[in-house]
Amino acid sequence: MTDKLTSREIARLITAALEDGGVLDKAKADKAIGIIEELSAREILFIENKRSLAKQFKDKQLIIAVDFDCTIARGYPEIRGSLPYAAEVLRALVAMGHRIILWTCRENLPGRIAKRHLDHAVQWYEQHNIPLLGINETPIEEDYRQDGGLRRKVHADMYIDDKNFPGGFPGWDIIGQLLLPPEQIDAILRKAE
C-alpha cells in the first residue's frame, strides 16, 4: 500500500526511473506523481513538525519521559520483545546529552517476587545500556517546582507514549527521524537492513 512509502522510497523510485535512460516514461511518471500527491500532505506536516522541534530544542539537553508498554516493549506483563529501533534511538538520544525517565504504569506488587513488573522494565534499560535519570519521578535536583508539595506528575520536556498518537505508536524509526540528526537515524536504519 502506498501510504507505507517514505520520501526516501519515493526518491529511489524516481531515481531508478531516471536511470532507465534518463527519462520517466508515462506509466512511471504517473505512478510517482500519484504517490507524491498521496503522501505530500503527511510529508509536509512531518517536515514542519521536525523543523519546529529542531528550533525548539536546538542545543538543549532534554529530559524525555518515555512510556514502556506498547512504546518500547511488546506484551504485558511479560515482555515479548522490543519495538524495532527502540534501544538504538534511545541510546542515540542519550549520546546527544538527553536524559530519559522511565514513565510507566508498571509497578512491583508487594510480597510477590513473580510480579516485579516495574523491575522488568528497568532491567530492559539496563540490558540495553540506556541509563535512566529517573523511574516514574523526576529527581529533585532536576525539578523546577519548589521544595515540598506533591510531585505526582513527572516533569519532562517531552513525553513519548503510545497514547500520544491517534492510531497508535508510529514507531521508533519515525521518532528517530523527528529527534535525531538525519545522518544518525539513517545509520541506525541502514544497520538494521
Q: What's the CATH architecture of the largest domain? A: 3-Layer(aba) Sandwich
How many discrete structural domains? 2
Give the percentage of residues in beta strands: 5-15%
Query: Order of SSEs, N→C?
Result: HHEHEHEEHH
By oligomeric state, this entry counts as: single chain
Biggest sheet descriptor? 4 strands, parallel
Low-confidence stretches: none
- Could you say what the CATH topology of the largest domain is called? Rossmann fold
Apparent shape: globular
Q: Find the structural class using helix and strand composition.
A: alpha/beta
Q: Which whole number gives the mean pLDDT?
A: 79
Q: Helical residue percent?
A: 40-55%
Measured between the Cα atoms of the first and last residue, the distance is: 20 Å
Q: Strand order of the main beta sheet, please?
A: 3-2-1-4
In CATH, what is the homologous superfamily of the largest domain? HAD superfamily/HAD-like
Helix run count: 6
State the CATH class of the largest domain. Alpha Beta
Protein architecture, described:
This protein is an alpha/beta fold. It has two domains: 1-59, no CATH class; 60-193, Rossmann fold (3-Layer(aba) Sandwich), CATH 3.40.50.1000. Helix content is 44%, strand content 7%. It contains six helices and four strands; from the N terminus they run H-H-E-H-E-H-E-E-H-H. It has helices spanning 7-19, 26-57, 86-95, 117-127, 172-179, 182-192; strands spanning 63-66, 99-102, 134-135, 158-160. Strands 3-2-1-4 form a four-stranded parallel beta sheet, with helices on one face. Helix 4 links the parallel strand 2 and strand 3. Helix 1 packs antiparallel against helix 2 (26-57). The chain is globular. The relative contact order is 0.14.
